[in-house]
Design a protein that fits this description.
There is one protein chain. With 108 residues, this protein is mainly α. The longest helix is centred in the middle third of the chain and has 55 residues. The relative contact order is 0.05.
């Protein structure tokens, strides 16, 4: 149990009531600090376990994708009339390198 009186015997009995009020205040303040510290510790632990769980889940998903050996590319052919026309097309000013085209047998 928390000591409600100070052990300082030099104080007078008249100051004892003020001391007990101050000490009671200190007791309440200390109890509140302990509760806040406990809540912070619980919050930290909960957030830590939540983040660790998310990390483990994400790592498991990455490993599952890696072990699935699915193809990385796919081809889809559709007729020009059914393909959507892009709203904006960006083309480089020199899209082809002439020397590479000639190397692969494409003439100018």
């Amino acid at each position: 149990m928390y000591n409600l009186r100070r052990r300082d015997t030099a104080r007078a009995d008249a100051a004892a009531s003020a001391t007990s009020r101050t000490t009671l205040y200190a007791y309440a303040r200390d109890r509140l600090r302990l509760k806040v510290a406990r809540v912070k510790k619980v919050q930290f632990t909960a957030i830590l376990f939540l983040c660790m769980g998310i990390l483990v889940f994400q790592c498991a998903q990455c490993v599952r994708k890696l072990l699935a050996f699915k193809t990385g590319t796919a081809d889809k052919y559709s007729h020009v009339s059914s393909a959507a026309f892009p709203d904006l097309t960006l083309c480089p000013p020199y899209p082809y390198r002439d020397d590479r085209l000639e190397y692969h047998g494409v003439s100018k």
